[in-house]
């Protein structure tokens, strides 16, 4: 029976380096337009960090600077203790990247593309590539142009994971994946974390970030507003609840509960907002004849508005 | 493989035009008197200065292919490659994945250039073989080595303008702009050459046109001149260096 191999980091001095990504006062202006402003962030080894914000907030700009696709206006980024502008090639040996907009050479087959990319890394364990393909249910022999976007995305995931990188940079990683494959992806990220890898994941989907990340950084309009542990976030998050009840319902039952607010009765539907534990709410509702109960995850606008205030539109 | 189709296209072009030669040779006397009647400047500009030239193999091939048609075709080929090398990938969105790998930007440019040079070489070989076959089948008395000289010269001309396209692509990241730039430089260069022949006061500028080192040198008649080859190689090398610098310096739109 195959033994699960413990993952080893490649170079010796990396045992000493605990900070994998260090971003200091990173600023980028596109002409007069602000991309990101004065970003300060440290990501430690073994962390899975979620970078959360609406479209246009500056997530991709930040990733572009980390990968040296664009140069900062001021400030700098260090990865594995090395400068992204002068040591980009050395850094990239240990990085796996999945871009937000994924395109491949259309005339090639998946296997040819993977071989091409593997050669750019001086070879990759092909057994591992095949096991990844199997895990994601991906057929390597089809030409890329005939692939659905979900399958293209699987190819993208494989090339990002296949060389067992120390750092994964994933930009909107689950867009295009069906729910089954999303779950498989979450498992891959968890396995990667268990093996000591560090991940930087940018997303605009809060539930996803909550599920797989240790810490979350909120970015909006180019500024990093806050960084929180996901566990703390879960406690603070406000969820909207809709309960359909048969018969008479006394809203005061809910009003008196801790963490419950905004209780309304509309057309036979009881609406309220809950933060923290759902336990009391459920036990209270259970006294009645509950026909249906819907819990809505808070969307980004709510979070930003609730916690960080907003005098303008978020997205 | 598009080189395959280009190769077929070139072969057919060269073979079909060569097939006209026997008929031209037959009507030599009539043609000679016609050319004599044209203005001298015009005939010089198109490389048929000497009346007898059109009816000789080298004169015929020069007039029909080497002075206009062939350079145009090769330029379309090389500019197409040069413009898509970097700019094409940047626009089609495949460049970001590539550059997330441990490859330096200069290496990407150089490898793309080498691919363009090799493709041009393959086409040049196909063109040369097509000429040799045509000459043999249609009884054209022209040596394979002179055909090689002329083909090499045209190929270098093509590679030079392909390198202009590469430079513009590296600098801008836009394929259309790269094509437009290279075509504009080529058209301007050609115009300069023609004008330097027609307008006396412009004659001293003839050396600033790349076409001078291909058309005026007339390798189909004179064989290959090291100076001409050297000029092309130097220009290409400079363009490559500038391409590397342009691509390494700027923000990429990926």
Summary, kept brief:
The complex is a heterodimer of chains A (315) and B (254). With 315 residues, chain A is an alpha/beta fold. Chain A is 31% helix and 30% strand.
Blueprint of the fold:
The complex is a heterodimer of chains A (315) and B (254).
Chain A: E1 19-30, E2 33-44, E3 48-52, H1 59-66, E4 74-79, E5 82-83, H2 88-92, E6 95-98, H3 110-120, H4 126-135, H5 149-161, E7 167-171, H6 179-194, E8 198-203, H7 206-212, E9 215-220, E10 223-229, H8 230-236, E11 238-246, H9 252-255, E12 260-266, E13 269-275, H10 279-285, E14 289-296, H11 300-308
Parallel strand pairs in A: 3-8, 3-9, 6-7, 7-8
Antiparallel strand pairs in A: 1-2, 1-4, 4-5, 9-10, 11-13, 11-14, 12-13
Chain B: H1 2-26, H2 28-37, H3 40-45, H4 57-66, H5 69-92, H6 95-99, H7 105-137, H8 144-172, H9 175-198, H10 212-216, H11 219-222, H12 226-249
Helix pairs in contact in B: 1-4, 1-7, 5-7, 5-8, 5-9, 7-8, 7-12, 8-9, 8-12
Can you walk me through this structure?
- The complex is a heterodimer of chains A (about 325) and B (about 250).
- With about 325 residues, chain A is of the alpha/beta class.
- Chain A has helices at about 60-65, 90, 110-120, 125-135, 150-160, 180-195, 205-210, 230-235, 250-255, 280-285, 300-310, and strands at about 20-30, 35-45, 50, 75-80, 80-85, 95-100, 165-170, 200-205, 215-220, 225-230, 240-245, 260-265, 270-275, 290-295.
- In chain A, the strands form 3 sheets. Chain A has a 6-stranded mixed sheet with strand order 6-7-8-3-9-10, with helices on both faces. A 4-stranded antiparallel sheet of chain A has the order 2-1-4-5.
- By secondary structure, chain B is mainly α.
- Chain B has one domain (about 1-250).
- Chain B is globular and about 65 Å long.
- In chain B, about 45% of the residues are buried.
- The model of chain B has no long low-confidence stretch (mean pLDDT about 90).
- The interface of A and B includes residues 71, 97 and 169 of A.
């Amino acid at each position: 029976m195959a033994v699960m191999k413990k993952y080893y980091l490649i170079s010796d001095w990396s045992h000493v380096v605990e900070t994998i990504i260090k971003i200091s006062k990173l600023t980028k202006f596109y002409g007069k337009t602000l991309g990101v402003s004065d970003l300060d962030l440290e990501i430690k080894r073994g962390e899975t960090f979620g970078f959360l914000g609406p479209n246009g907030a500056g997530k991709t700009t930040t990733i572009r600077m980390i990968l040296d696709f664009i140069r900062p206006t001021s400030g700098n980024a260090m990865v594995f203790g090395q400068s992204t502008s002068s040591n980009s090639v050395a850094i990239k040996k240990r990085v796996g990247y999945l871009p937000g907009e994924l395109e491949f050479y259309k005339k090639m087959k998946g296997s040819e593309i993977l071989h091409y990319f593997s050669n750019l890394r001086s070879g990759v364990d092909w057994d591992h590539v095949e096991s990844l393909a199997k895990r994601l249910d991906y057929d390597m022999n089809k030409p890329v142009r005939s692939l659905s976007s979900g399958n293209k995305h699987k190819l993208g995931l494989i090339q990002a994971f296949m060389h067992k990188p120390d750092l994964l940079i994933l930009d909107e990683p689950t867009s295009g994946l069906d729910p089954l494959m999303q779950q498989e992806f979450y498992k891959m990220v968890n396995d990667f974390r268990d093996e000591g890898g560090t991940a930087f994941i940018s997303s605009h989907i809060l539930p996803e970030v909550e599920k797989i990340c240790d810490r979350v950084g909120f970015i909006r309009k180019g500024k990093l507003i806050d960084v929180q542990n996901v566990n703390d976030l879960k406690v603070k998050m406000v969820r909207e609840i809709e309960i359909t009840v048969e018969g008479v319902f006394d809203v005061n039952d809910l009003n008196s509960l801790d963490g419950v607010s905004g209780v309304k009765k509309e057309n036979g539907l009881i609406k309220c907002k809950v933060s923290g534990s759902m336990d009391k709410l459920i036990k209270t509702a259970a006294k009645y004849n509950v026909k249906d109960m819907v819990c809505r995850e808070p969307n980004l606008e709510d979070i930003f508005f609730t916690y960080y205030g907003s005098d303008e539109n978020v997205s | 493989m598009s080189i395959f189709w280009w190769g077929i296209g070139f072969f057919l072009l060269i073979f079909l035009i060569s097939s006209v030669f026997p008929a031209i040779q037959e009507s030599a006397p009539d043609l000679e008197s016609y050319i004599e009647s044209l203005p001298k400047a015009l005939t010089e500009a198109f490389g048929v200065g000497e009346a007898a030239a059109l009816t000789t193999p080298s004169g015929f091939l020069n007039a029909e292919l080497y002075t206009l048609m062939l350079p145009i075709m090769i330029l379309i080929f090389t500019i197409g490659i040069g413009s898509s090398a970097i700019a094409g990938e940047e626009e089609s969105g495949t460049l970001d994945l590539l550059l997330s790998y441990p490859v330096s930007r200069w290496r990407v440019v150089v490898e793309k250039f080498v691919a363009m040079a090799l493709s041009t070489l393959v086409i040049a070989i196909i063109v040369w073989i097509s000429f040799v076959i045509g000459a043999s089948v249609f009884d054209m008395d022209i040596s394979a080595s002179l055909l090689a000289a002329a083909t090499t010269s045209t190929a270098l001309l093509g590679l030079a303008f392909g390198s202009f396209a590469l430079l513009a692509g590296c600098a801008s990241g836009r394929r259309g702009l790269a094509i437009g730039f290279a075509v504009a430089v080529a058209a301007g260069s050609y115009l300069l050459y023609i004008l330097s022949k027609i307008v006396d006061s412009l004659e001293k500028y003839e050396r600033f046109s790349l076409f001078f080192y291909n058309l005026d040198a007339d390798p189909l008649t004179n064989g290959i001149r090291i100076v001409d080859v050297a000029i092309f190689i130097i220009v290409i090398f400079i363009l490559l260096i500038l391409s590397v610098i342009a691509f390494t310096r700027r923000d990429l739109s990926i």
